[in-house]
Amino acid sequence: MSFDTLGLHAEILRAVLDSGYTDPTPVQARAIPVVLSGRDVMAGAQTGTGKTAAFTLPLLHKLQPYANTSASPARHPVRALILTPTRELCDQVFESVTTYAKYLPLRATAVFGGVDMKPQTESLRRGSEIVVATPGRLLDHVQGKSIDLSQVEMLVLDEADRMLDMGFILDIRRILSLLPARRQTLLFSATFAPEIKKLSEDFMRQPEFIEVARRNAANESVEQHLHAVEPEKKRRVLAHLIRHHNMGQVIVFTRTKLMAERLARELKRDGFNCEAIHGDRTQQSRLETMAAFKEGTLRVLVATDVAARGLDISELPFVVNFEMPTNPEDYVHRIGRTGRAGASGIAISLVGPDEEKSAVLIRKLTNKAMEVTPVPGQFSTSETRERPQREYRESREPRAEREPRTPREGGRRSDIMQIETPLVEGRNREAPAALGGRVGGVGHTHFHRGPNVVRELPALLLPPRYAVQK
Ligand code: AMP
After folding, report:
1. Model confidence pLDDT, tens digit, residues 180-236
2. N or C: the chain end with fewer CB closer than 10 Å?
3. Which residue from 6, 19, 212 has its CB within 8 A of the most atoms of ligand 1, so it is best to mutate?
4. By alpha-carbon position, which residue is closest to atom 20 of ligand 1?
5. Ligand 1 pocket, residue 21 CB under 6 Å
6. Domains of the chain by range and CATH?
7. 215 CA to middle of ligand 1, Å?
8. Is 84 in the pocket of ligand 1 (CB under 6 A)?
9. Is 436 helix (H, G, I), strand (E, B) or coil?
10. Concatenated DSSP letters for 274-319?
């Protein structure tokens, strides 16, 4: 099946083609026609299945008749609202919206906490057909009267299960009460816990259920390894495995913020190029760390489940569970960071004696035997330090080892987006300066650009356009 057969507007198809996608993923093939028909949809699909385009493409198609270039805010009321649980996911969905809407004069704004509210307010006041938001910050804007939701025709609840896990249920109900009753509602969730069903009964009209193969059952492209390791040896085993598998880049999961912080510190001391992201880090620091990781300059990213939720990192070959998650569903989300959209990946779990229970639950959930295997390679517990020359050499090597990303490297056009950034040396380090310079363009598909230079960046690099919260 190709995208052409789905009846999407030509300018949307053109943008999809630019992204290099010719065939819809299963959730796209099933959801797009139903959304186009106007029905409510409840879809069981996780990050990595292509779910973002599954709701974004038909949403844009339905808004296309409203596309206009008028400067009047009245001509750009909010017509579609997309709610996401985390700031990072909000930014990623916003990126997808702007990517697929690039040939249509529709406006989009990202609204999430931890960053300055003013540019968001300005963007909303100028008018924006599509708003991608986290619930708390959206309600702040409602309270500040910078957003009017009375003309919303389409609502998307992305990763609804996680929004409920994160305690957003009251916020969501409050937001739902502000929307017109006559609207189309699309709910995407990895699981359908009773609260989700209740939410759908209260707020949806005879939704069509769409369930695509769960990654845990179907994703054969992720190799899963379990090693039994005493907690005090885990760090040394991890350092050994990074070298043994020659991991160009890896996400390492911990259960707590404290452990994420400690492990990152220790790995840094061992000579690894490593940073942690978790809920106690400032939004600015999280965005910068993610940008460095996506750009390929950061080798090891240590993350907690909440911080890493929904992150779209393409072609990441390795994920390590330094600590097993208490909730087996989180295991599925964690390993979903690798083996995405058909690529292959390896997920390694270091299971301590007190974590065997979660390993059993995970086996049950994933329906896989997953034997505990010995740590591969010659492993000596005294060998911990990463030799600096090696780290230096490897930090320059991944580009050649990786799939090429830029046209100069021979990458597909689809992986590249052209964005304009102020000319700064060492973009990430200079981010705060750059941030101030981009305030005018926050959240809009049409940026107001100064005397900037055009640079080519990997499509997944978070643009440093968000002003830090004062
Ligand atoms: P998502 O589940 O929305 O987080 O998407 C997972 C990844 O799949 C993203 O990197 C998308 O860019 C990619 N993707 C989305 N649609 C397609 C498609 N039709 N073919 C191949 N990859 C896709």
Report:
1. 999 999 999 988 888 888 999 999 999 999 987 654 433 556 788 899 999 999 999
2. C
3. 19
4. 21
5. yes
6. 3-211 (3.40.50.300), 222-390 (3.40.50.300), 404-466 (no CATH)
7. 14
8. no
9. helix
10. EEEE-TTS-HHHHHHHHHHHHHT---EEEE-HHHHTT---TT--EE
